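Continuing the series of single-chain predictions for the mutant panel. This is the parent chain; the variants come on the following pages.
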Amino acid sequence: MESGGLTDPVLVFDGDCGFCTSCVRWAERYPRQTLASGGWEAVPFQFADLAALDAVAGGRGEVSWERAEREVLWVTPAGRVYGGAQAVARLLMRSGGVWAYLGGVLALAPVRSVAAPVYRWVARNRHRMPGGTSACALPRR
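Parent structure:
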């Protein structure tokens, strides 16, 4: 992130979670490598300037520590914030090629209604997923 704002979208994820980190590394290696891919930056929320990202988003509290603990966030240079399954959809759309089609499908209303609860289930159980550890468990509310 540059001081004057964002030049590319930022993916904010839980850097303490092995499962989340593995997913981001996979996304950096595969979808990002397509020829049509636009740039994006992945930043663990523990090291991100969340206040600056929230300011880009209009300072409405859409980018917060509490939200970033629970779901991946996609913050665009235009100030849009997408969370959870829709953040994943936006990342895929940004990647171009066949990935963009998959992201577009995830963003369709009928699919969104299924993708959101599936994402929430995965997020709640990420400590049980491959690469997950007890550090991946979501905090209790």
